[in-house]
C-alpha cells in the first residue's frame, strides 16, 4: 500500500540549451512541463520531459547524471544562472521541484567554460579536471601490509581540514559559478587535501607547481576573490583553501628557485 | 623553476603582483593623504612639507620610479588577467546570477579605469601644472617660512626660506566646484576600489581565513571610510570656505 502524500503538482516551462554537438549552433528551446509532483527531483523532471520528447519522436535532452545522490559529481547544469540550481550545498540531483514556483520559467544551461567544451545539450567534457589531477602526480608512501593505525601522527585540526578539502567531488560547479571560469577552488581543494597531511609533504612543492601550471595551460581563468565558487560548491568547500593555494604556490616557487638539485639525479619527482 | 616565470607567467603570480603593488600604492595613498592633511594647520606646515619633499632630490625620484613601476605592473597584470578571464568563458550564460560577490568586487575594472584617469589629471594639475596654469605653484608668489619645518625633530626647512606656495595652489585649485567635485567622485571610487582590493590582497597572499575574515572586512570598511573622509575634507573645506587663502596669492591670480 502506498502512503498518502501531500504532493502538490506544478507546471513549469523549461527553457533548455539545445546543441546537437560541439560545433553545431546552439539555442534555447522552451518545453512546457505540466503536472509535475513537487517531490520529484530536478533530474526526474528532466526524465519525464525526455519521455515526452521520445514519444513525440524528438531528440531527448542530453544531461549528465550518475549516482543521483550528490556524491559522484557527474550532474552539472546551471539552473536559472546558478550552478547546481537554487539549493545550498547540494548538487543538481538533490534539487527538488518544490524549489520552484508554479508557472515558473526555468532556464537550464550547460556549465560554460572554454576548458569544459560542450559535448551535447547540457553535457560538457570536464576531463580538464582529470588532467590537473594527473599533473599532481603521486605521493610517496610505503606500500605493503596495512600500517598500524596512527603510526603517522596527524593533528586533529589538520585531519579535519584535509577531509573538508577531500570532500570535493570534482563536479566543476566552481568553474561554472566563477565569472572568470577559474578552477582555483578545485585545484585548491586537491592541493590542500594532500598538502595538509604528512603523507603529502615529499611532493608538496612539485605538486602545487605542476597543478597550477596545468590549470593555467588548460585555459581556466584566474581568481578575483569574489567567492562565488564556494557559494555554489555542493560540498561547501571553503575559499580559505584558495588562500592556502596562493601561499603554497608562492612558497613552492621561491623554494624551487633556490633549492639545489643533485647533478647526478635522473628524472624528476 | 625560474622564479620570474612563476611570478610573471602564472595566474597566481600575476595576482601576487597586483596585491604587492597594491600594498605599495595603498601605502603611498595613505602617506600622501596624511601629508596633505597638514593643509588644515598653519601655512608653514604644508608649504614646508612640499619644500622638504623636493629637497629629497634623488630619493624623491626613487620613490617616484617605484610608484610609477607599481602603477604600470598593477595595470599590466590586471589587464592580462582580465583578457585571459574573458577568453576563459567565450560563450556567456543566458541568465546571470550573483550569489555573494560584492558590488565593489564586480566594479573593480571600472573603478580602476576612473582612478587611472583621475591619477593622470591629478599629476597634470598639481605636479606638472598643465591645467589651471594661473594658480600652479610656480606661477604664484613665493611663500616665506615664518618658522622652521621639522621632520622627526630634524630641521628640514629653515625659517625665512622662500618656498613654493603649495597651500594657495591647492585652495585656489579647489575653489572651482567642478574640479573639486571630480576629485571627490574620484577618491570615492578609489575608496570603493580599495573596499575590495585591501580585503582581497590578504586572500592573494594567503593570510585570510574564515576565522578572522569578518574582522578583516570590518577593518577594511573602516579604513576605506576614513580614507574617503580624509580626502573629502580638503576639497570639501575649500568649497565651504573653511580654509582661507593668503591675500597675496589671490591678488596674484586676479586679472
What characteristics describe this protein?
heterodimer; A: 269 residues; alpha+beta; Ubiquitin-like (UB roll); Fumarate Reductase Iron-sulfur Protein, Chain B, domain 2; 2 domains; five-stranded mixed beta sheet; two-stranded antiparallel sheet; 8 helices; 7 strands; 14% strand; elongated; B: 255 residues; mainly alpha; 3 helical TM bundles of succinate and fumarate reductases; 10 helices; 69% helix
Describe the structure.
- The complex is a heterodimer of chains A (269) and B (255).
- Chain A is 33% helix and 14% strand.
- With 269 residues, chain A is α+β, with helices and mostly antiparallel strands.
- Chain A has a 5-stranded mixed β-sheet. A two-stranded antiparallel sheet of chain A has the order 6-7.
- In chain A, helix 3 (156-166) runs antiparallel to helix 5 (184-195).
- The N and C termini of chain A lie far apart (62 Å).
- Chain B is mostly helical and 255 residues long.
- Chain B has a single domain (3-90, 103-253), classed as Up-down Bundle (3 helical TM bundles of succinate and fumarate reductases).
- Chain B is built from 10 helices and 4 strands, in the order ααααααββββαααα.
- In chain B, strands 1-4 form a two-stranded antiparallel ribbon. A two-stranded antiparallel sheet of chain B has the order 2-3.
- In chain B, strand 2 and strand 3 form a beta hairpin.
- The longest helix of chain B has 31 residues, at 58-88.
- At the A-B interface, helix 6, helix 7 and helix 8 of A face helix 1, helix 2, helix 4 and helix 8 of B.
Amino acid at each position: 500500500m502506498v502512503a498518502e502524500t501531500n504532493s502538490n503538482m506544478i507546471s513549469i516551462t523549461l527553457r533548455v540549451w539545445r546543441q546537437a554537438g560541439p560545433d553545431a549552433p546552439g539555442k534555447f528551446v522552451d518545453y512546457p512541463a505540466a503536472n509535475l509532483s513537487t517531490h520529484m527531483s530536478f533530474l526526474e523532471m528532466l526524465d519525464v520531459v525526455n519521455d515526452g520528447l521520445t514519444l513525440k519522436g524528438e531528440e531527448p535532452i542530453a544531461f549528465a547524471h550518475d549516482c543521483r545522490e550528490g556524491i559522484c559529481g557527474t550532474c552539472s547544469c546551471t539552473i536559472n544562472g546558478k550552478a547546481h540550481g537554487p539549493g545550498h550545498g547540494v548538487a543538481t540531483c538533490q534539487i527538488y521541484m518544490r524549489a520552484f514556483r508554479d508557472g515558473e520559467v526555468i532556464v537550464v544551461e550547460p556549465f560554460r567554460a572554454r576548458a569544459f567544451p560542450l559535448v551535447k545539450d547540457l553535457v560538457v567534457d570536464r576531463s580538464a579536471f582529470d588532467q590537473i589531477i594527473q599533473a599532481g602526480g603521486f605521493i610517496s608512501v610505503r606500500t605493503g601490509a596495512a600500517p598500524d593505525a596512527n603510526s603517522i601522527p596527524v593533528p586533529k585540526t589538520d585531519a579535519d581540514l584535509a577531509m573538508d578539502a577531500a570532500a570535493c567531488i570534482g563536479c566543476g560547479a566552481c568553474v561554472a559559478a566563477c565569472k572568470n571560469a577559474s578552477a582555483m577552488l578545485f585545484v585548491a581543494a586537491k592541493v590542500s587535501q594532500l598538502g595538509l597531511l604528512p603523507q603529502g609533504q615529499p611532493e608538496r612543492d612539485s605538486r602545487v607547481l605542476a597543478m597550477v601550471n596545468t590549470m593555467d595551460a588548460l585555459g581556466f581563468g584566474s581568481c578575483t576573490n569574489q567567492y562565488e565558487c564556494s557559494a555554489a560548491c555542493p560540498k561547501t568547500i571553503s575559499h580559505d583553501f584558495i588562500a592556502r593555494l596562493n601561499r603554497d604556490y608562492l612558497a613552492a616557487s621561491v623554494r624551487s628557485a633556490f633549492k639545489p638539485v643533485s647533478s647526478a639525479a635522473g628524472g624528476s619527482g | 623553476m625560474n622564479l620570474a616565470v612563476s611570478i610573471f607567467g602564472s595566474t597566481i603570480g600575476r595576482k601576487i603582483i597586483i596585491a604587492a603593488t597594491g600594498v605599495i600604492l595603498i601605502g603611498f595613498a595613505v602617506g600622501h593623504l596624511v601629508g596633505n592633511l597638514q593643509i588644515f594647520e598653519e601655512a608653514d606646515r604644508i608649504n614646508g612639507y612640499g619644500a622638504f619633499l623636493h629637497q629629497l632630490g634623488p630619493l624623491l625620484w626613487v620613490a617616484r620610479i617605484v610608484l610609477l613601476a607599481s602603477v604600470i605592473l598593477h595595470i599590466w597584470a590586471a589587464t592580462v588577467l582580465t583578457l585571459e578571464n574573458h577568453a576563459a568563458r567565450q560563450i556567456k550564460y543566458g541568465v546571470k546570477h550573483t550569489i555573494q560577490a560584492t558590488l565593489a568586487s564586480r566594479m573593480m575594472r571600472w573603478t580602476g579605469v576612473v582612478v587611472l584617469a583621475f591619477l593622470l589629471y591629478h599629476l597634470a594639475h598639481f605636479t606638472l601644472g598643465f591645467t589651471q596654469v594661473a594658480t600652479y605653484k610656480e606661477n604664484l608668489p613665493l611663500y616665506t617660512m615664518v618658522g622652521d619645518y621639522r621632520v622627526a625633530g630634524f630641521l628640514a626647512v629653515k625659517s625665512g626660506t622662500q618656498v613654493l606656495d603649495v597651500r594657495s595652489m591647492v585652495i585656489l585649485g579647489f575653489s572651482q566646484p567642478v574640479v573639486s567635485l571630480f576629485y571627490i567622485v574620484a577618491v570615492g571610487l578609489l575608496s570603493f576600489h580599495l573596499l575590495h582590493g585591501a580585503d582581497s590582497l590578504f586572500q592573494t597572499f594567503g593570510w585570510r581565513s574564515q576565522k578572522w575574515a569578518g574582522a578583516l572586512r570590518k577593518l577594511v570598511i573602516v579604513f576605506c571610510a576614513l580614507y574617503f573622509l580624509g580626502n573629502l575634507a580638503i576639497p570639501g573645506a575649500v568649497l565651504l570656505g573653511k580654509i582661507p587663502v593668503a591675500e597675496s596669492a589671490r591678488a596674484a591670480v586676479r586679472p
